[in-house]
Each structure stands twice: as C-alpha cells, then as structure tokens.
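Feature request disguised as a bug report, sorry. It would help if multi-protein outputs had a clear separator. Right now it looks like this:
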Amino acid sequence: MDDESRERAVRAAVRNNAEWCDAVCRAHAVPGEFGGEAWTSARRTPPLYPDAVTLTPDASPGDLVSRIDTGSPGCSVKDSFARLDLAPLGFWVLFEAQWIHRPADKAGAVGKAGMSPSQYVSWGPLADADALPAWETAWADGEEGGGLFRAELLSDDTMFLAGASAAGEIVAGAVVSRSESVVGVSNLFARGDAPGGEESAWAGCLAEVARLWPGLPVVGYESGESLDAAVRAGFTPIGPLRVWLRSD
C-alpha cells in the first residue's frame, strides 16, 4: 500500500468509526455533531465511547475541547491520527492502538491460522433486538449487560454478529457497520471458553462480512495481542491513534 492509499484507508476507517460512535450516542439520546475537523458531543457520551473523534490530522486541540463537556468525569477524546497534545488541557493517554485495513479481495479468505469459520461455532447476524441482551452479556464475558447496545442500532448497515456454540450459546461476536466505502469491525470478542479464541472469531466475522457486503474492504482498530490476531487474519496496520482521558 503506497502512502496515498494508506492515507485514504486511514481516513475511511476514521470516518466509519466516528459514524459508529455517533450512532451509539444517538441511540442513547445524546446527539453528536460532525464538523470539518472532528465529531463531537456536547453532552457526556455512554460508557466506553469518546466525547470527540478527530477527522483530520490538523484538528485544533483548543477548539476541540471547547465543544465537549470537560466538567464531568470520564471525558475522553479519540485522537485519530495521534497528533494532539492534550496534556496541557488536563488529559492523559489512556491507550494507543493501530488502525487496521484488509483489502476486499481478502474478505472471504481464512486467516493464517487456517481455521474454517464454522469449525467451532456457527456465525450469523442477530435476528432481532430481543437477542441483544444475551449478546451484550457474552461480550462482557458473562457479566450482565447494562444496556449499552440498544435496538435503535440495528439496521441494514449495522449488524451484531454472533458466533454460537452447538448448544446455541453465544461465545463470540462482533459489530459490523457499513459506511460509504468500507465495513468497520468493532467490539470483536471471543469468550474465555470459546474454542479457537480470537483467531476463530476473526475467521467467522470476516466470512460473514464477505457474505453480507462482498467487494468492500474491512477496517477497524486494535492493539496488543488483539492487533497480532488481526494481522494473522490478513489485516495491515495503517496508522496510529490515541485515546485521551480527562483527569478527574
């Protein structure tokens, strides 16, 4: 991938992720706003979701922070290009990660682990909102969900994929959301007792993405061992990001 293609891929991944964050917030009646440099929410966003996502590398820290609620605990900023210095404004780096990209021509291929997507579990989209609580509990590794993922998120362009065991229990899953030119994967998980772990989860997820939206590249972001698993599944790291958290 040359520099120009990489830049386009990063911007597509950033936009896709910002649209997903916006959808989650709107489902909680917290509408955000897309500006030229960033997506921002003037009200505190749901847990685990940022109050701002930069859309360009040259976003202004001062302008960005002025558009979000820094007065209540938990304020965070997704610095999509790892360019900002928000420390003087009272933030610290919560974590760093890499945007990832997988070409469309690989969308139906199994990762390097060589496992069939259906070797351990059967994959498919949730049929309706009634299945969301069970999906969220599995995503939280057995802890009862708090209603983070709501029925309003279900659409033709956003699906909750579930990997079910032979007994019908959800043991793996992911959220996939289609934007203009890519499909984004987020919240991918494999429960501690899921055979094959993330390797199998990526294989099953990617096979479903290829079936649902053939011909589109797949993007997302990961870090640590999850990034290693994504690379083994055929993704390429294409650029860094940081998430900043406001000091309480």
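(second protein starts here, but nothing in the output says so)
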Amino acid sequence: MNGRQPAVHSRRLGAGDPRRISHYRLVARLGRGGMGQVYLARSRGGRPVAVKVVAQDIADDPEFRRRFADEVKAARKVGGFHTAQVVDAGPKDAQPWLVTAYIPGPSLQEAVQAHGPLPSGALRVLGAGLAEGLAAIHRSKLVHRDLKPANVILADDGPRVIDFGISRALDGSSATNSVLGTPGYMSPEQFQGRDAGPASDVFALGCVLVYAASGHSPYGEGNGLVIQYRTINEKPDLAGVPEHLLPFLMSCLDHEPRRRPTVDQALAEFADPSGDSAWPPPGIEAMVLQRRALGALPPPEEPSGRGGGRSRILVFTAIGVLLAAAGAWTATAWPDSGRSGGASTDATVADRSMAPCDVLDNAIAERHMLTDTGSPGGYDSGSQRVRTCRWATAEFGDPDPGYEGYFTLAYGPASLEMIQENRHRFPTDLSDLPGAEAYANSSEFETACEVTWRTSFGRVSVYADEPPNVIGGVGCDAVADFARSVFPKVPT
C-alpha cells in the first residue's frame, strides 16, 4: 500500500451541465468516458442512479444513433450479480442518454492507485466476479469491448462490470470495423479492425487481472501506437503477478482468439467453493462506504417532524462520519446554479422551479453546512399537493455526537403548517423577509422551527427539526437565515 488517502472522485455540476435528463435530477459528475459525461442522479422516487449523456459530436452521427438504439435494447436484457443493470434510456433524444443502477464503490483503478495491488484472495473474488459478469453480457448477445480497470466497480458484495458504452451486438446487425477501446486492454484483433467477439473480452479480462495483481497493464502506458505495437508483436509484461496465476493469464493473453479460455473456464479457474476469500480487499472498505454516502438517501419525510427520530439520527450520523473521513462535508459534490451566490438577482418567475430541491447551489450548501444534496418528497393536503425537499445540516451543533439537524423547504397550499403541535410565534428578526412569520413548538427547548410566507400559489415554509434539546434558542434564527438564502430563488 502506498498510504494515499482515498477520495470521493466526483465534481459539482458546472454551468454547462444539464440539471435534468428526462425525469432524473442530476446532482454531481461521476466521470467522463469516451462516449460522454456520467452523472450521479436521483430518480423520481429518490433512488440514486448513474446517467451517461452521450457527447454531442457522437450523437450527431446517424449510424451511431442506430447502433446505440440497438445496443440499448440488448443491454436492457443483461442481468446477473456482477453487472450494473440498465434501467432506462433515451436513444432518440437530442443527446442520447442511458441510466444504470448506481453502484457504490471505487473503480478498480482508483483502488489500486490508492492501496496497491490486490491480495490473492481478493484476486480470486475479482476474477470470478468479472467472468460471471462477462458471461451475463455474452448471454445477451453483447460484447463489452472496453473492459478496463476504470470500468470495474468494487462494491461491498463483489465486483461489478459497468459501461457497455462501445459494446456491439453479436448478431452483426450493428457491426463496425472502427477501432474502439482503451489501449493497454484492447485485444490484437481490436487494434487490427478484425472481428472482436467474446474472446476479445477474455483478453481484456486477462489485462485487468494483471493490473489488479501487479499495478500495471501488461502492455504498459503512454502512446497508443506504441501500446498497439507491443500488444500485437510482443509478450506481455507479467512482472509482479503471483506465480500460480501466470499460466492462466498467459492463456487469456494469447494472440490467437481461438486459443484463449472461455469465460466459463475463467469462472471455474477463479471460483472459490469454500467462499472464504476475503472481500472487500483491505483498505477498500472506507472507499466503498464513501461512495455509499455519496449516493445515500435520507428516510421518507415526515411533515410533523416528530416520528422516526432515532433512525434519522443513525443514518445521518453515519453519513457525517464518512464525509468527515473524506475530508469534511465540503468534499461532497454540490449542484451549481451557475451564479456566484446563493441569492439570484435576475431570476424570473418562469425560471424558478416548483421542485424545491432545485434551489440548491454551492453557496447555500457551504453557508448552511448541508451534508447531502437534498431528498425530494411530498404529500397530499386535501385536494392540493405539498412539494418538499429536505437536507441534512451540521449547522445546529457539534456533528461528532451525531447532532445533525434537517432543513426542509416546502411549497403548498395557504393552510400549510409544518409545525402542528403546540405551535406558537417565535420572536426572531424577519424584517428583510416581507410578510414572513416564525413559529416554534413550545417544549422546554424548541426542537422544531418554521419560517413561512404567502406566495401566489399558496405558502412557502422553511422548517427545521433535529434531535431533542439541540436547536435551543438559536435554532429559529438559523432557520430564518436559511430562509433568507432561499427566498430569492423560490416561486413567488
């Protein structure tokens, strides 16, 4: 191990990034591949997903669009324990997109860069999992064609194969002689523009396992043409690979596709009947937990602010600890409004969203110590709908004991009252929020507070609740301050 600290490799949305793709709300960048940008997003039900948006220059190619539509149809059939399920797609949109399940965990590349080569037991789990994932892909009449360390996610229950971005259908209906793939993990036949079938994925499997065992590709790094020459003409560099793996990996890297083992043979080679192989590898657990925290969702919202307190505290205590380990809460990626501050000076009624989570930007997140990117919710109030978004915050006290609280922004009818029990006016300065009023509950220490004002569609409320005896007398002032941040950004 090299001692480097793992980090959550995600970035805030930039001014040029979309905020929504179809009905998926984008919250952060996860990375960029050869086909386009990958985002962390939320489904309408709040589930974390990965959304790949195809780059415009590729999307403008009619032949690509036809091939993409065919492959999306085939990829939806891929199942198995070791792949990321394709759940939705928009192949006919102006910029085609693809949605897969979000797998919390680092890539193999990130894990090896942070902690060095995997130990023997973990290599066995990795080899068996990748072979099983490729078998599921091949059963669906697809070839991956871009298996590499960056496309292998190390989840807490085993590896996952992701990104079928340049796969092709085995029936030849979308065959292409284009040289697609990543040098260092491409087979000789890929470089030569020949047919790249399942045996090509086995070659890539061998390359990936060499990387996992040694920390380097068997054909080196650098100039793609140099790597191409080595792949076609030279023997692989297997320095650092455990001796007992050498014969099988050499067979995977045979220049002749028909002499390579099948994925079923690879599965038999690496399967551990005892099930005793250690997973996840040492040092990787924290990286897995950080990715889980990035995609973590709070429990369903409770408008009364009273029920389910213990479970919410446990969930956000864990997230707070994980984000602190990743370099404090500011390491999380936040949606960027494209404006320099939390208050918009040029927003019009038309561009203020009726989705409360859309108010979030970096300035708001930083100013109010938000520790997640918001959980959309809502409920029916008579014949009208209340729309909500809730964020965890460390603003109400020392986060170490788990005293994070929650800000909720709600849009609803004129009768909306987030505090319903022992509701009473609370004296706090609201002179810069025209028509706003503050309310608290009347326990010995206020444990919930609401700042509310009328609007054209009914009422807006900013509400906070937290573990008992934490909000105290400063809580309503903090809620009023949060209301000042979002006031210019909500519908009027």
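Even a blank line would do. Unrelated, but nice: The mean pLDDT is 76.
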